[in-house]
Amino acid sequence: MNIRTSNLLRSYVISIFDWAEELEYIEANKVAKILRRIKATKKIQLAESKREEDLYLTHEQLQEWFSAFQEDLENDKITLKDYVLFLSHFFS
């Protein structure tokens, strides 16, 4: 079952129990409260993996950072102290 089908099914069940509550067949829709707390496992895994990927720079991005700092140092946009601070924090 894919995420879309799972969400559709969950929404359908919740709406059935909401309707039953409105028609006073049941006192409270306890099923909907439980279903709303359940998150799609695959959706959570995708979000976590995306966050992991966002934590790290690619090799190309890292090279761009080094090049930019080197260029800024050469063009006197940053001081040697700032440049050394950047490198020391990166390699520590």
Question: How would you describe this protein?
Answer:
The protein contains 5 helices and no strands. The protein is mainly α and 92 residues long. α1 runs antiparallel to α2.
Task: Throw out a few tags for this protein.
mainly alpha, 92 residues
Average pLDDT score = 81
User: Could you give the distance between the termini?
Assistant: 46 Å
Strand proportion, as a percent range, falls in under 5%
Q: Indicate the overall shape.
A: rod-shaped
| Secondary-structure element pattern, one letter each | HHHHH
State the low-pLDDT regions, or none: none
Count the helices. How many?
A: 5
Largest sheet: none
- Helices and strands: which structural class? mainly alpha
- The proportion of residues forming helix, as a percent range, comes to over 70%
Radius of gyration over all CA atoms, rounded: 26 Å
Short recap of the structure:
The protein is built from five helices and no strands. The protein has helices spanning 3-22, 30-37, 41-55, 59-74, 80-91.
List strands and helices in order, with pairings.
Blueprint: H1 3-22, H2 30-37, H3 41-55, H4 59-74, H5 80-91
